[in-house]
Amino acid sequence: MALDVLVASLVAGLLIGMVLALVALGLTIIFGVMDIVNFAHGEFLMVGMYTGLLVAQGAKMEPLLTLPLAAVVGFVLGWMCYFLFVKFLLRGPMVAQLLGTFGLMLLLRNLALLFFGSEDRAIHHGLLVGKSISMGMGVTVPATKLAAALLAVTAFAAVWLLINRTRVGKALQATALNAQGARYMGIPTDRMNGLAWGIGGATVTIAGALLVNFWAVNPYVGLLFTMLAFTIVALGGFGSVPGAFLAGLVVGLITEIPGIWDSISLAVGWRWMMDVPMTSFKYTWVYLAYFIIMLARPKGLFGWKR
Amino acid sequence: MEALRNAFDFSDSPRTDLMVVGILAALLVAFPLVPYSSFAMATMIQFLMFSIYGMGWNTIGGYGGQVDLGKAQYVGIGAYTTAVMLIRWDVPFWVSMPVGMGLAVGWSFVIGYPLFKLKGHYFAIATIATSLVLKDLFEVWDFVGAARGLHISPVKYPPPDFLRLIFREDIYYYYLLLAFFFVGILVINWFRHSRLGFQLRAIRDNEDVAKSLGINVHWAKIKTYALATAFVSAVGSFHAVYIKNIEPEDTMSLDISVLIALMAMLGGAGSLWGPIIGAGILIPLKSYLKEWLGAKAGLIGIDLILYALIIMLVSAVEPKGIWGLLDRLRRGRGR
């Protein structure tokens, strides 16, 4: 019985980890290309979640079909944020950059609060909602999570191909390695920065539209994902795309540890272990992990930037 | 003695500035003499609280250039220490405040030692992480009331109680906080002239050069962080007896940390008057906007939207804040 729980937790952790990897992808691209940390990243995700939710509910559409729309919204959002705002931050000191993207985060969050209200909203319809798939060994997985994980991996692979197998991707990499040198070679680095923000926004809104199938959305949902994404990027290495994928899986597994702990303590029946259910610390572990990773290996697993 | 002389030495500011400051200080002292609404009084107290928080942040964030976004955890430590000690053991404020400061400073050493091995963004994110971890702990810790928080019942103590600081009228709180405020300015003024203050500015400008001059960079940052913590924790204790109802969400949330950093940034990080200017503009703006647009017109969050726009504008246009703007204007006129 204990083995069932363990396998089920591992599967769940890996599935959510794949989505989280997609969440973190945009952050690591933006950081890699232009050394700026986007605190509004989780809020971009929230925008994606609301896009998926409102379009799916308003047009009575299958939620998964809203993905392309969410991607367009995210790309435009990221692009606009760069050219209307972030561009001007780059001249200032780091303090200004930090607080600037923080301002962006507050703005998006409270605009959402103003327009959509503070209550939780969730999708209750769609092809996959409520169905589950048996994976053998007595493990069943909700179909929405499975689909989200598979689509997240697809999107991740698409972005990886874009970066590593196209001319634009090469230009993007050149900008990341040495912006001044890239400018001398005739690469429009300003447009590359905008593109990085566009791709960053698009990937994270896709992740949001995937998440909303099984995760309720409210205007405050962003911070948790910002922190998760920071942890993943720190673990994978700032600026590393494959690192983000592996670290996403690891962080997904970390979020499952408290659940395993609780079921073990329930099975063993020790009083002191049951007194404080570990699941209430589900994300505390992730914050701690960030702290420990940064101290033990600041470069992350695959990092090349410090 | 030297320290005391430094604390009262304002001679490096222009005389016009000092006159303006003197007039403003007199106005602050005289404010309760004119008829005021309780809302205006609450706003003034908020202003004083946040300018002291901002002064604390300014030592490490402004003079030291280390963007700390975890100050709220020390508000929480101060507030909880005072509340727990008062409720459980009936310990007066004047004992629990130093205890709270001690605990907060101790904690700041514990996490400051590893924290300051990080730099820049990594440091900022790590401060958020520690603050969130502490908040999560307080939300399940039964001894401090878990997520329900703690409530100090004013009925148990006949006001005015000067030992436990339980008053019915806000005016007592106002003058007490005003005293804290002036002491705070003197401490910051001392810090500005002290060896540590100069070391910190050297670190902000160029850490490698500072190191090569023989400054123990790591230790200087930790010491300053502890000083900043003491400021924040003292006002946190005050928050507990003034608000009387404390929860993890409204003492330790990220919003408080950001607000603190923002005050100092808007006014001008790394200048003596910056945090006070920032708080003087933002706090009244925030509470009146919330009152007029939020509560009356039903537009929730509109105050924070405006806030966010201000932060974005300041950081994109004038990262040195209003003080930097004034400085530039003044220098332009002098030329």
Outline of the structure:
The complex is a heterodimer of chains A (306) and B (335). In chain A, 72% of the residues lie in helices and 2% in strands. Chain A is mainly α.
Describe the structure in your own words.
The complex is a heterodimer of chains A (306) and B (335). Chain A is mainly alpha-helical. Chain A has one domain (2-117, 128-296): ABC transporter involved in vitamin B12 uptake, BtuC (Orthogonal Bundle), CATH 1.10.3470. Helix content of chain A is 72%, strand content 2%. Chain A is built from 13 helices and two strands. Chain A has a two-stranded antiparallel ribbon with strand order 1-2. In chain A, helix 1 runs antiparallel to helix 10 (241-254). The longest helix of chain A is centred in the N-terminal third of the chain and has 33 residues, at 2-34. The mean pLDDT of chain A is 84. Chain B is 75% helix and 1% strand. Chain B has helices at 2-7, 15-30, 38-63, 72-89, 93-115, 120-140, 170-193, 195-205, 207-212, 217-243, 248-252, 254-267, 274-296, 302-317, 321-334, and strands spanning 150-151, 245-246. Chain B has one domain: ABC transporter involved in vitamin B12 uptake, BtuC, CATH 1.10.3470. In chain B, helix 3 (38-63) crosses helix 12 (254-267) and helix 3 (38-63) packs across helix 13 (274-296). The A-B interface holds A 37, 85, 88-89, 92-100, 102-107, 109-111, 113-114, 117-118, 219, 223, 227, 230, 234, 276, 280-281, 283-284, 287-288, 290-291, 294-295, 298 and B 61, 65, 67, 69, 114, 117-118, 120-122, 124-126, 128-130, 132-133, 136-137, 139-140, 254, 258, 261-262, 265, 269, 299-302, 304-305, 307-312, 314-317, 319.
